[in-house]
Structures are given as C-alpha cells and as structure tokens.
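REQUEST FORM: STRUCTURE PREDICTION
Request ID: SP-0412
Submitted by: Lab K.M.
Chain count: 1
Length (residues): 221
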Amino acid sequence: MSTKPLTVIDPAQQCWNRIGVRGDRSCPELLAHTHCNNCPVFAAAGRRFLDAPSPAGYLDEWTTALAARDDTREGDESSVLVFRLGDEWLALPVAVLVEVTRPRTPHRVPHRGGFLAGMANIRGELHLCVRLDLLLGVAAIENADPDLRRLVVIRRENDGWAFAADEVDQVHRVLLPDLTSAAPTLARSQGKLTRGVFPHAGRSVGLLDDARLFQAIRERL
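STATUS: Completed
RESULT:
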C-alpha cells in the first residue's frame, strides 16, 4: 500500500494548534464555540482536506486491495494450544481445552496402571489422568525440568481427561490449509492421530485430531 501522504492543511491555517484548544487558547471564538471542533473555521478546514485530490495511484491501490479476494475462509483457521511431550511439540484445538494447571500427583486406580495414570482432584472435580506420551509413542527425555510441567484438562462432548505435559507454550492461530503431512519418522500411533504439521518458533508442531484422539483414549481404556 502506498505510503505517500494525503494533501495536508497548511500549518499556518491551523489556528486550533496556535490559538485554539491545542494552543494558547487566546482565540476569541472559544467563548462562543467552547471547542475548536464546533467552530466553522475548523469545519471548513476539514472539508478542504476531504475535497483535496488524492496522490497519484492512491485510489487505484485501495481499489485493488479492497477488491482482492480473501483466501481465508471460515473454518480455515483454528486456535490451538501448543505443548510438549518429551521432545515432541504438539497442539490441540482450544475448543477441547478446559484448563492448564499446575501438576499434581494422581491417585492410582486399583488394578489399573500404565496408560491410566490415576485420578486427580482439580477444583473439586475428579479427572481421569491418562498417559498421552504412551498413547502417542513419545519417549521421555532425561533431565526434564519439573518446573515446566503442567496438567492439561481437555473435554469433548461427554468425555473429559487430563494429561501431563512436559511444557506448555501458548495459544496460536493456525491456517489449516497450510498444514503439511506428518513426517514418516513419527511413531505409527502419533501419525494416525495427527492432522498435519505446522511451523512455529523454528520447530515443527504436530496438530492432533481431537476426534480421533478422544476415540483412541476411550478404546485404550
């Protein structure tokens, strides 16, 4: 878009900046009009500004910009929460996000273990905690910083779960048509549950398919 300025009013004619409300307020017309905005001189200057010819090419540039088709359609963009499991960066749509909270040690469920980590009390409500790293085949990393760990609570329809993340980034906007195919080096289970990959902060982030993820959790349990 052009950066050429529109025609401006001669500073010598800008009495409001010299003797008006933006100046020393010595203008005698202030007694009658209270403020420069109500003065006919100010109104006339505004009309001259609006009636002034535009710079060469200015109108053409705006006509082209406004006539251009917006390629981002409804449903093409999604807000996602980016988080890390092990050394893998992943994301989930915020539509299934309930909250992100400090980690807490889940209480074990008798005769259950492995994928089901236990139950955790979050704001007075019990949540089943699952090992998303096991479901996705993500290997743990050594010397992980415990201060970065968070507990992520998700819900879709009537299903609600919590899982531990090694780190949580932020909510970001993603253009879904720009997703690229998941790398073949991903674990088989992770690749099946990933809609695609998008770049963020110099790394590749796998966007998980929340519908298939919730189904996989139910089947695993």
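NOTES: Residues 1-7 have pLDDT under 50 and may be disordered.
Reviewed by: T.R.
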